Amino acid sequence: TREALFHAQKMEAVGQLTGGVAHDFNNLLMAIIGNLELLIRRLQHDPQSLALLNNALSGAERGATLTRRMLAFARRQELKPAALDLRPLTRNLVSLMERSLGPQVGVDLAFPISLERVMVDANQFELAILNLVMNARDAMPAGGRITLAAQSVQVGEGHAVGLPSGRYVCMSVTDRGQGMDAATLERATEPFFTTKGVGKGTGLGLSMVHGLAEQSGGRLVLHSEAGKGTRAEIWLPVAPAEAPSQTPPSPMDEPSRN
Ligand code: ADP
């Protein structure tokens, strides 16, 4: 459709823009950090100057972390899809995340043992789930339960999701949080659309998930009702039985978004 094309073009433009800007910024920041480190070594005898320089250094380092995240976002286009077993991956990911979700938030998993493997890039898929779970948590400020579920679905012609016929796995992240009104729901996957306010949301989470699903031959489908909650479904094509499995990604040290 026209909207899908528009979205894809916008995402590509955003990806190229952030990639280019982040790359240049990273080089500039590396030069600034290098010079600051030299100055800090020279001014060891001057505590007042040292304090100022250390402030500048930590600012520059925060900037460098940001640009690296932006570069990672831009590189997201280079996907390496392979057959992936969602059950162990999700279980590991959730146990890693549980600490940062806090005691008020619980995660329930509902994955059938016989779940078929899907074709998707494992690292990007982890990021996508992370984004969806963080959104679910943000939608429940007082806490609550988040359900991650998956099932195999045979999609036929005229299926509501509008995918080509075939076998898919539909994985969903469900919360009983504040939900979205129709206007928010319509714009939710747009890059940079956020209702979370400056410094809180980037507006890139759902657009990343949407991009990954589409590029993997699947879909992101959002169901939401204001005051009731949200169910985000990632539909992914089932991997051919003979496809070699990909090695699961290494555990992430620190869950980061986007
Ligand atoms: P961000 O989380 O940085 O705002 P996203 O692209 O992930 O960016 O989400 C865009 C917007 O969609 C959010 O600001 C919020 O308004 C809405 N949204 C996303 N997920 C949920 C959810 N589970 N419940 C309610 N609103 C949501």
TrEMBL record:
This is histidine kinase. The chain holds residues 249 to 506 of 627 of the full protein. Signal peptide: none annotated. Transmembrane segments: none annotated. It comes from the Bacteria. Residues 20-240 form the Histidine kinase domain.
